[in-house]
Amino acid sequence: MPRRLDALDVTFLDEETSTAPRQVMTLVVIEPGERTFDYDTLVGVVNERIGLVPRYRRRVANVPGGLGAPVWVDDEDFDLTYHVRRSALPSPGTDAALRELVSRLVGRHLDLSRPLWEAYFIEGLEGGRVAVLIKSHQALVDGSVTVDLAQVLLDETAHDRDVPSDGWVPRGAPGGPSLVAGSLWDVATHPRRAAERISGGIDRVQSAVGKVVQSLPVVGPVAADASGPFSARLSPHRRYVTVRTRLDDYRLVRDARGGTVNDVIMTTIAGGIRGWMLTQAEPVSAKTRVRAMVPMSVAAPDGVPTSYGSTVRGQLLTLPVGETNPIVRLHQVSYALKAHKETGVAVAANTLASLPGFAPTTFHAVGARVAETQAHHPYDIVVTNVPGPQERMFIAGAPIVETYPGIPLSHGRTLSIGVTSYAGGVYYGLVTDRAAVPEPDVLGQCIEEALAELVEASSPTRVRAPRGARTDGSSRGMGAGA
User: Fold this and answer.
1) Coil vs helix vs strand at 147
2) What is the pTM of this model?
3) In degrees to the nearest 10, what's the CA dihedral of 19, 25, 31, 37?
4) Gyration radius of the chain over CA positions
5) Given a cut of 60, is residue 294 above it in pLDDT?
6) Residue 155 carries which DSSP code?
7) What whole-number distance in Å separates Cα of residue 243 and Cα of residue 385?
8) Residue with more model confidence, 6 or 447
9) Bridge partner list, 312
10) Which stretch of 174-183, 338-347, 448-457 has the lowest confidence by average pLDDT?
11) Which residues contact 120 (CB under 8 A, 6 or more apart)?
């Protein structure tokens, strides 16, 4: 019998609605290289590599009468050009135009009767650049059986890689009686597992999600129900915002003020949200907090993570957006994450970044899955932060210059933030609900400004004014005769 969907995958399919498409995405920007990279090239490299991720040629088949969990079956009518599509930006092809196109594509549902993914070749960017957007359903990529398509498309060099053809011929899908019989056999031989799959209850299936997507107990306090500027009924429409920053800036702050690069990134997000809330006249006091679900990699009992993923657990992190001092904000975030670092199972960023292939795309998908298993906890936003390789990557010989993740929205949470460090840069992908989060571009700008504030406060050449004096030289406070 074909492989049956796990209970979490069934939940993703069952809970998908017109306002909550369940898909993780990756956007890469490609510079023109010595070799032509066009739509036909993309189709060719996908056709060459798709055998490495067999599930990308399979669709979901339901068991008649709902008598068991659906199964993955080969798509006998698989059409690669249906899944790999072509788009173009109007001249002059600005980054803003690219973000607007991606905003519309990320909110568009996948066809659940076909393999659950799409890729878009986007041409017409300024400077001769092109972009590739890959969307994969959350039920498709589990980090254990299937990694993200982008992970197998990208190479560490510009040289061609010889990938033998897998000679794929679709196997005929089993008929209804066979599906029912297989489901009954599954119940008889694995009654507990079958019960979990049928029920689809997330609380009862965390141990069945798989070795790679294991969800350990949440670290951190559980507060009241989520509310605030990022909690609302979801609409069908999205906005996508990208932020490009330099990794050296985060390292400068880390070296000057302590903590880790991850601490600085989370502090930057806290400062960015604070700045955005102030621009929107949202109430901000010293006690204002935003709760983030931050999936964290931990070492598996049998070793370190591989390019097929890592054991991941959900960590609740309270972002101190009410704190006015950026350095105090950093220390508060570092202290909050200290418990994870001291467990002895935390995975170092350089360990993840050194994995073969372009593993960040899979790690983001795994992190989004884990966040969903913790959906019953009260948090406001999801943040996935994955370190990537610091050497340039290539697709069909063309260099990748930027990469941005995208995490789906669900359960009334109107903002998700994915972060990937790559080749000297740190790239943010913000997915927001178009109707619920006003001016998301301003939020992106505030994140840049929050980083600049941290850098300025950590710079060794910063000019510090004497206490009680203004930087312009004028006196402050009481006069000299006091």
Assistant:
1) coil
2) 0.85
3) -100
4) 24
5) yes
6) B
7) 14
8) 447
9) 297
10) 338-347
11) 84, 85, 86, 87, 105, 132, 133, 134
